[in-house]
Write a structure and sequence with these properties.
alpha/beta; about 160 residues; seven-stranded mixed β-sheet; homodimer
Chain lengths: ~160, ~160
């Protein structure tokens, strides 16, 4: 498989996970968190599929397409390990969906970050809320749910707050 | 349609055009030119789908994934308006396939570049060779061919050297 094939497959998997999560949270009120704005494509997808939900976005700095930059009061800039606890304090434990894609090429560092974030993500989610992540999240209050058909295990992870 | 949807559709269209072109040049000997290496995904796709073909790559500078950087003797670095004529002089008019994706956000400048490149691309192609481009190429020696099913007209352009 070429890198073009693999990239298309990864984006399709990401979209399938978002579709699945949107169905899961149909009856769960609450806001949405996008950890890692990047070029803003996922943020744009979330606001398209979840009109009316408040979406808060986190990144070190803004590098997104100009059309995909959230309003300043919905943007948390800085290290996620600092800004996510700030968001919990400010917004309360009222999230219905968290999408996190903050991994880098360094797997050890990704695992450490995932271990740090898992309890904070669980704290900000309502029971029944969903987290989609690019890294495995282990926490007693997070229960893995089945990935959509066609998404290779390990490519993405989906958990429900219990 | 979200930017994620639109990006997936664009990559699928690109892959479909490459597949179509590979079928067209089955009986046309010759090398392959990739104008615009970028992250190297298309280059990787071309070498995967066209094993045994010489592939020459052009870019201002190398920003590709380390696995997708061609050998120095298959890489032309600099302004494409300079390096493409150099390639024609060095390699001769023996290309079977040219893939060009060098457009920027500035449509006027893209059209000027396409007008400059069209005759050089035609000169380097063998009769029966194919050029896939992100801009319309107009030249009496280039004849448009049908886009693969599902590819929106204007998203990509395919021409055969006649």
């Amino acid at each position: 498989m070429s890198r073009l094939d693999s990239f298309i497959r990864r984006l399709q998997a990401q979209r399938a996970c978002l579709t699945e999560a949107v169905a899961h949270i149909r009856d769960v009120d609450g806001f949405v968190l996008e950890l890692g704005l990047g070029n803003g494509r996922t943020y744009d997808h979330l606001r398209d599929r979840l009109p009316g939900r408040e979406i808060y976005v986190f990144d070190r700095q803004v590098n997104a397409h100009p059309d995909c930059i959230p309003a300043a009061d919905h943007l948390f800039l800085g290290e996620i390990t600092t800004t996510l606890p700030q968001a919990l304090a400010k917004l309360g434990p009222n999230a219905a969906l968290v999408h996190t894609d903050v991994g880098t090429g360094d797997q050890k560092s990704n695992e450490r970050l995932a271990a740090t974030l898992a309890p904070i993500i669980r704290s900000i989610l309502r029971v029944g809320g969903i987290v989609i992540s690019d890294q495995a999240l282990k926490h007693p209050g997070l229960s893995p749910i089945a990935l959509p058909e066609g998404v290779k295990p390990g490519r993405y992870f989906m958990n429900k707050a219990v």
